[in-house]
Amino acid sequence: MGRNVLAFHLLLALASCVADLPTIYEYYTGDGITSGLGVDQPQFTLNGKEIFIYSGAIHYFRVPPQLWRDRLRKLRAAGLNTVETYVAWNIHEPRSGVYEFGESGTELQDFGNIGRFLSIAQEEDLLVILRPGPYICAEWEWGGFPSWLLRENMRVRTSDETYMKYVERYFNQLLPVLAEYQFTNGGPVIAFQVENEYGYADGDKVYLQQLVDLMRNNGIVELLVSSDGASSGTSGSLPGVLFQTANFGSDPAASFGVLEQLQPGQPLMCMEFYPGWPDHWSEDHHTTDPSAFRSNYEATVSYPGSVNLYMFHGGTNWGFMNGANNGPGDNSAFQAITSSYDYDAPLTEAGDYSPKYDIIRELLAQYNPVKTLTPDPPELVEREVYPTLALDGQLIFNDILARSNDSITSDTTLSMEQLPINDDSGQSYGYITYRQENIDIAAGSTLTITGHVRDTVMILLNGVLISNRLTGSDDFNDFGYWRMENSTITLTTEDLTGATLDIVIENFGRVHFGNLYQQFKGLTQDNRVYLNDQELTSWVIYPMQFHKDWINGITDWNPVDLDYGPAFYKATLTLEESEDGYRDSFIDMRTWNKGVVIVNGIILGRYVFIGPQQALYLPGPYLQAGDNEIIIFEQFQPAAEVKFSKDSIFNTP
Ligand SMILES: *[C@@H]1O[C@H](CO)[C@@H](O)[C@H](O)[C@H]1NC(C)=O
Ligand SMILES: *[C@@H]1O[C@H](CO)[C@@H](O)[C@H](O)[C@H]1NC(C)=O
Q: Which residues form the active site (predicted)?
């Protein structure tokens, strides 16, 4: 009994002691705001008080907006005081001159509402670091560049006039929105990064200065920083104008040592500390040993240094928004990033705590000299394994094209980006079909596509798939994929008259790092198409963008024929009315081959049976009472049913 009373009093004392702790904003802004983030002594100061920045990256464009608060609260509960995010140009200017910051009614309206993300961050007692690029890398489609930039000749990431014309036009829209949320204006944003790892790029300092000027002229007053690997020295920065940070995942002494030489007597910050790593299709799922993470993170924090965890929570490359790597030159070394951006991060793709989460919490409680009121980690809601669904509808490939309302006839092939659609912004993402109608094809005829395709190709003859289905990653060396230069396929063993020939090409994601040029998709300038020796002309071109309105407008489904190759397959998940909303789940795609999954018009992402990703995250907020339409565009071989899984699934390809 006595022990219980004692324990009770201890608890009370503890509770009141915790309750006495100030929030971050009480601590740093309680007496008014006179200055932002300062770097003129060995420790950062914020509003004149010392601060270590313990930050984690969460990209608002990779997390369903309905879940922003949940993820930010979990970040704060880990003991972090700052969230960092890139700003993705292709979210905010989806068509040339069409801007989306949450009010323009485009498909990206919710993701584009960056102001709401910043407000929630502040409500959750977090400071913010913004990295508006305009180039962001991030393993995101073309490093954040909107694809319509490809319609004009320009050298991105340089002071090239055409490029800068569009950067200026975009920044003049974006930066006034961001400026409102600056710390010294009473908002959460304490710093802005200029460009991104520019030390690996062209070294055009005029360009960097132009970006700085655009920011200052648009009312950005907070600290401007650059971030690079330490080996880049000052080549990606502007000494005296941009405060330099370093990027690394281990050996903090080496990188901080370089910073100490470059900026003696100034604070040390790692802008990208890697607790995990992204995956490409056909690789093993990357994981980092938590104990290695612990020692590297502890060495960084105790150095002492400020640090941003890239990523704290990776989220999802939903839709077609994954990036890709490549070698220099042609498309032969192409490697697409998976739709899951789990990253083996402290918070998993679905928002679960991983062992690294607890390590961060423990280490920051120990090392952060400033004690603030830190919430408990929110309780997790269990995910649901919804009942396995039979397929209840199908549209074979010809039926999909028959529902297209934006086909184009053209003498020559046009790349996606050159199509005169979307207010002359071209097609950005998805698939595209080049059709020949009413042609005669003699037995033994071959089809040749010159150059490297961008990125996968299926051939259909009279609506039937005649190219091979995907059987393994070795197939990437053969017809249908990007590695082979000048690829040829035999079309038919019998004479055909009045045939329809379809060339279906997938944009598997544009390169996000390295050689960013020539990111055209579909049949590009490099790709000529020959029937035997005859170059083909007179095309009907079908953009297959899978826009939400178009998907949701599909009616008149046909019965299911499982022998068929590229097609839409539909299943219906019927849910009862629920006041608490619906639970998250994963869709288990292990028995399917390759394609994309769409739920209620929202493209969850791609699947490829070789992995490592085998299940697609289905956020509960994407579900609704009544019927939920699950549409799968399977390129090769469907399964008979749609199965759910409680957890993510990764295999070893
Ligand atoms: C591909 O075809 C082009 C001509 O169209 C030729 O110049 C090139 O050498 C060919 N490449 C290979 C690997 O055969
Ligand atoms: C095609 O239909 C979709 C969905 O109804 C609509 O949003 C789009 O504007 C249409 N496109 C054209 C070119 O008419």
A: 197, 272
